[in-house]
Hints:
- With 134 residues, the chain is an alpha/beta fold.
- The protein contains 4 helices and 8 strands; from the N terminus they run βαβββββαβαβα.
- The protein has a single domain (11-133), classed as Rossmann fold (3-Layer(aba) Sandwich), CATH 3.40.50.720.
Amino acid sequence: MCQRPGHLEDPEHRQHPALLDNPERPVYGxxxxxxxxxxxxxxxxxxxxxxxxxxxxYPSIADIPxxxxxxxxxxxxxxxxxVLDEAIAVKAKSMWLQLGLRDDISANRAVxxxxxxxxxxxxxxxxxxxxxxx
Length: 134
């Protein structure tokens, strides 16, 4: 179920982390790094924020005005099924569960719905490793 996606190299892919505006949280640093170093067009999702890093923040994945293909999850593992429901509804291609997150039931459901799944991995670390290869 866990796989290292080759689709990180595709410049059309977009991802979003659901995050808080707390610089102490890992999601803050990862998001900032991805904005500065990746080719991703990043959309932020959090119903309690309006902007972050000068970008609009959307209340849900469904509110993002463009197609999202990688849904990067930085939430409590108990929230993964709900995020997966949103990812399926917007026809995302992948769901990425960050370090420390693993939900095999949701991962199986995601795969049955045509999504690629990565669990317990850091998108920044994997992207950085990809850059080192080139």
